[in-house]
Amino acid sequence: MISPRLPMSWVSALLCVFWMAAPGALRAAEPTGLEASLPGTVWKWPKTDEPVKVDGKAAAKASVWQEVRFLSDGKFSAWNKAKIVYDGRWQVVGPQSVRLTCNGPLALILFFDDKGTKFSVGTEPVGGGNLLGHAPALSPLVGKWRWRGGDIVTLREDGQALSVDGNGIWRSLGGNRYELNWRHGVFVDTAELVGDNNQLIVKNQHGERFEAYRIVTP
């Protein structure tokens, strides 16, 4: 039997389909513009002596934004001195504009200059916020964790430890070991990151051991 011959145009088309289906043939587009330049940077917030309105109310003086840090996972944190006062998500919504959203209805639009070194908030003149440099490297401990009993513990980059049962602070003991001090020393845990940094082996001051697991959010 004589096999039918396919026209060369068909052969080329089939080869193209096979090439596109091959692993690694299609690559995700590399981030550009603000999506590439913002992650890992820290910025001076304009008008640092004036409160930011949250949910229609002016924030307390201790909650006034002084700096904003952009993280690589689409999250941001607003700082007052050495403490996080608000956090949320950031998203590029235009060639030179970014939207900040917190829990609740708060949404701010930042407009950046062409050089990407200054920004304004809303209709304020460009230049209110200035690039200060790169933020410190993020500790692998930072994130949300499911504690024993199902409690959710949030470990922030400023050393705060937040829980419905009471807040505290955490510090590094070197390597993958950390100390968590709850309620000014009422409870003290030591924790070790293991595996792919998504699991904690925790021991409290009574010697009780348990495991905690990172909550991975999109």
Describe this structure in words.
The protein has helices at 8-21, 34-37, and strands spanning 41-44, 53-54, 57-58, 67-70, 75-80, 83-94, 97-102, 107-112, 118-121, 129-134, 143-146, 152-155, 160-162, 168-174, 177-182, 187-194, 199-204, 209-214. By secondary structure, the protein is mainly beta. The chain folds into 2 domains: 34-134, Lipocalin, CATH 2.40.128; 143-214. The strands form 3 sheets. Strands 1-4-5-6-7-8-9-10 form an 8-stranded antiparallel β-barrel. It has an 8-stranded antiparallel barrel with strand order 11-12-13-14-15-16-17-18. Strands 2-3 form a two-stranded antiparallel sheet. Strand 8 (107-112) and strand 9 (118-121) form a beta hairpin. The termini are far apart. Residues 6-22 have low confidence and may be disordered.
Number of domains: 2
Work out the helicity level. under 10%
Spatial shape: elongated
Give the biggest beta sheet.
8 strands, antiparallel, barrel
CATH architecture call of the largest domain: Beta Barrel
Give the averaged pLDDT, no decimals: 79
**Order of strands, widest sheet:** 1-4-5-6-7-8-9-10
Say what the CATH topology of the largest domain is: Lipocalin
User: Spans of 5+ residues with little confidence (pLDDT < 50)?
Assistant: 6-22
Please state roughly what percent of the residues sit in beta strands, choosing from under 5%, 5-15%, 15-25%, 25-35%, 35-45% or over 45%: 35-45%
Distance between the termini: 57 Å
| SSE class | mainly beta
| Rg estimate, integer Å | 24 Å
Series of secondary-structure elements, N-terminal to C-terminal: HHEEEEEEEEEEEEEEEEEE
Based on DSSP secondary structure assignment, what is the total number of beta strands?
A: 18
Name of the CATH class of the largest domain: Mainly Beta
The number of helices is 2
